[in-house]
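Hi P.,

Sorry for the delay on this. The queue was packed all week, but I finally got your sequence through. Input first:
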Amino acid sequence: MQLEQRINAFVTLGQFLGQFTSNESVKNINILHNEVFYDKMLMQLELAKNHNGWFTSDNLFFACKSWSEVLSNENIKQWVKKYNLAEIKPKVIGIIMAGNIPLVGLHDFLSVLITGNKVLVKLSTKDKQLLPFLANYLVNVEPDFEELIEFTEGKLINFDAIIATGSNNTARYFDYYFGKYPHIIRKNRNSLAILTGNETPQQMAALSDDIFRYFGLGCRNVSKIFIPKDYDMDLFFNGIFSWKNIINCNKYINNYDYNKAVYLMSNFALLDNEFLLLKEDTGYSSPISVVFYEVYSDISTIKYRIETDNEFIQCVVSQAGIENEIAFGTTQYPNLWDYADGVDTIEFLLKLS
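Then the structure:
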């Protein structure tokens, strides 16, 4: 199968996903194989929602929308143009996927296929409905993919390299079992925001998306903010108010109530707007419904802190001149070339040939 065939198939997948971006999704008769897959996709989205309480309709539609936008012909060609994909000796790449947000492992899956390798997938039990279905759609679009895609529920065997994503605890397990193979093993990472007090209301509202999308479960969600001394916290709380209805989610409010009770019983000082808790803490990984914060006097100390703690940080949201900072509201819109943990997956795969 030629690279152009793979690119065209991915573009078609993006067009297919573009139909499922809201409750008002409308069937497009021009999408390839829609007569077979459209209604079944609606069913798979419903199954995913029923299987995992964190996978709300809103978050599932958002995941489909973001992937439909990124899988354009222009984006995919921009992604692969710097690599030499012409002479690949196909390998079997095992992928152990996380399940914290919908389709979180899709980028690894597509990276293996775009390079002409075979993918052997072990899904998370939390997110096992959508990817096999979309893989089946890809095979119908481009039948040559069939021999390159395999899912397994058992122990991973007969692979040449591994890509595994999990927690710090599971990473130790992955290291033990897969350390002798070429590997990418991802641990916990979190994203942070640096506020100066000069942000616009629009930027603060955008920051709320970075915090609350997917209930804060993704590594690209902002779980920590740095604020300057004497910062007016009303700027922050007014900015995030548009997400007030998140408290109506039972799983979220249970976490909010639990964390609030634990912190209050432990006599921790909290800032609380009745749907989010702010706790002063030096850590990066805050619980659901909680954002940690620290106060700074000199932005240079934060720059040094970020350099020192780089292995724990996924994204930095800021307009303070921090290296590799990204704009407010963009954490959940990564490009195909924005690799998790800064590790170039395509480059890793090419070195195997």
